Here is the input.
Amino acid sequence: MDWDKLRIFHAVASAGSFTHAGQMLTLSQSAVSRQISALEEEINTPLFQRHARGLTLTDEGEMLYAAVSDVLARLAQAEEALKNVHDAPRGSLKVTSTHGIGTYWLVPRLSGLLTECPELEVHLVMEDRELDLSQREADVAIRMRAPVQADLIQRRLFTVHYHVYATQEYLDKAGTPKSMDDLPDHTIIAYGETAPPEVRDVNWLCDHVKRLHRPNPKGRVVRVNNVTGVLNATLTGLGLSSVPDYVAAQYPQLVRILPESEGPTFDVHLVYADSLRQSKRVAAFRDFLVRESKDWHY
Here is the structure.
């Protein structure tokens, strides 16, 4: 069997559709479909049941998927063993994280990592969706929740807290709220439709206003779809917002208000595939982040 077809088959089986597999492999949906049809003709066996909601593996497809998964895992281990021939960690390390963690926590620390490991090449991908580590879309991930997959290794790094912030300029203009019940009189900068799904109650300020059932003649809600937009809108004095403390700490012009009111919290985890357990690149990155996050919390 042709290995390229098997690789595409594994991606389709993992993604559950030709379209998603094509996006992972940077191939068109039609090209992926042709390769799967050619593989099925080659072995004279249907591998997928096609229906309106997507694809499911046949019994034969399940057998082939398990075999190809095993081969891919062995290849990943062999690749890592070859890279570990040298003493120092070297080569490319693809890291994925959310936009907020990557921009405001990881990037400011990367120079320290590269000083320790000058032969390491870091490729940072900041997306709020989770890349598939088992498909090698990335080597390691910094995530806002613990993984549930059995083949992923996790290490908790630190806990993030949200509080309410505004600039002094805004407070001088609109007044400082004395309690959460004063929020209807203020402009609230909230996350839009693509708010991080892992952070429960990320729009807790808006939720509180809704529960009050009070008209808000002065207040309004401005929605922005990522933490940088929320931060910049707050820094311009547009209104008040819920911002992670690790972000707000970098901007002294932000004033924490309603300090007794706690927003959502979440634990940040470093995650990587079990096949990279012996990787010197991953170990160097893990040990560096653990040192950076020790006794650190916001």
Observations:
- The chain has three domains: 3-83, 91-158+267-293, 160-264.
- Residues 231 and 243 are 7 Å apart (CA to CA).
